[in-house]
Design brief:
Layout lengths: L6 E10 L4 E10 L4 E5 L6 H8 L7 E6 L2 E2 L5 H5 L1 E4 L10 H11 L6 H11 L4 H4 L9 H13 L5 E5 L7 H18 L2 E5 L3 H5 L4 E6 L2 E5 L3 E3 L4 E2 L5 E4 L5 E4 L10 E3 L5 E3 L10 E12 L5 E8 L2 E8 H6 L7 E6 L5 E2 L1
Parallel strand pairs: 3-8, 3-9, 6-7, 7-8
Antiparallel strand pairs: 1-2, 1-4, 4-5, 9-10, 11-15, 12-13, 13-14, 15-21, 16-20, 17-18, 17-20, 18-19
Helix pairs in contact: 3-4, 3-6, 4-6, 6-7
């Protein structure tokens, strides 16, 4: 990894919606050749943030450095080194071949176009013989998204930014998209920035996953966000009431940054039976919905539904096996009030 970040963002502020919403990223570094995932609720600022990284939108305040140099929004050569694929693929009313080759022709590249198009099609699992002459309206949703991706891959960008690339595609296309962008990164050291609601799929792509919530980066994706309002309770604790009426306690009051508590999944113990005689102030009943392997780790992520509120615990495979943990079972999430920190 380079000492100098490929992207460096400082003091970024972007206002829109008549000032009703504010995107604020005080500081963020992204290194060359890494793959960064972005998750968060709709309306939380993900797409706006991606467009700023793609240099399609300009922040109201702050500075973006790219490869050690301050970004000049008028540097079109720099903008051409970054390409973005939106959630809804936009295809020209032409053939698949013409759609994929369009970017090369705009850049007035004339050498080896057919070879490059066929190579890009192969990356996304589209047979050149079968699809080259197919029209845009003869494609399924997954095929259209793969054509749109191929039209970006053929440009060999330094940065590839994807906004919900698997939101409306079939499972086969989701796998092929994953394989294509991973191959691109391995071959060309492409920097990937991917937003997705599919955390399991994203874990197979990203080295690090950030959560964008309320216009801010609220820790990593696996961190649990516990919203307020928080109120003082007995024994000097603070409490937040969950949708199902259960109460979560924090040891310290919310700070000036807001009322969003963060809880590291590693601080949550899972029990099949309600534990007795322990010092943890929080014992929350829920149902285990999903067990998945954490990317670049030997740990499992356990997703627990608590009356519509989702909580994630990080546990070892050995611990899961020792208590015979399976999705669909009722479990208890156990953690200390002091484990909750403030955003």
């Amino acid at each position: 990894m380079n000492e100098i970040p490929f992207y460096r963002i400082t003091g970024l502020t972007y206002r829109y919606g008549g000032g009703r919403f504010l995107l604020q990223i005080p500081e963020l570094d992204i290194y060359k050749g890494t793959s960064v995932g972005i998750v968060g609720p709709n309306g939380g600022g993900k797409t706006t943030f991606l467009k700023i990284l793609a240099l399609l939108e300009e922040p109201d305040e702050g500075t973006i450095f790219l490869n050690g140099k301050k970004v000049d929004q008028n540097d079109y050569g720099l903008k051409r080194s970054i390409t973005m694929l939106l959630q809804e693929p936009y295809l020209l009313k032409r053939t698949v071949f013409e759609n994929i080759s369009y970017g090369l022709k705009v850049r007035k590249e004339k050498q080896g176009i057919a070879e490059k198009v066929h190579s890009a099609m192969g990356l996304v699992g589209l047979s050149p013989e079968e699809f080259s002459h197919r029209r845009w309206h003869q494609l399924s949703g997954g095929e259209a998204q793969r054509v749109a991706l191929a039209s970006r891959l053929i440009l060999n960008p330094s940065v590839l930014i994807l906004d919900e690339p698997t939101a409306s595609v079939d499972q086969e296309s989701a796998v092929l998209i994953k394989e294509a962008i991973n191959a691109m990164r391995e071959k060309y050291n492409t920097t990937l920035i991917v937003a997705s609601h599919d955390i399991v799929w994203l874990n197979t792509v990203a080295d690090k996953i950030y959560r964008v919530y309320g216009g801010r980066i609220a820790g990593y994706a696996s961190d649990n966000i516990i919203s307020g309002p928080w109120a003082s309770d007995s024994d000097g604790l603070w409490k937040s009431v969950l949708p199902d009426g259960q109460v979560i306690h924090a040891a310290t009051p919310p700070d000036d940054s807001g009322e969003k508590g963060l809880l590291d999944p590693s601080d949550i113990m899972i029990s099949i039976q309600r534990p007795e005689g322990i010092s943890a102030q929080n014992i929350i009943r829920g149902r285990l919905m999903l067990l998945s392997q954490e990317n670049h780790s030997d740990k499992l992520l356990a997703r627990i539904d608590i009356g519509g509120f989702s909580m994630t615990s990080r546990i070892t495979r050995k611990a899961a096996e020792s208590i015979h943990l399976f999705p669909g079972e009722d479990v208890f999430a156990v953690f200390k009030a002091s484990s909750i920190r403030w955003q």
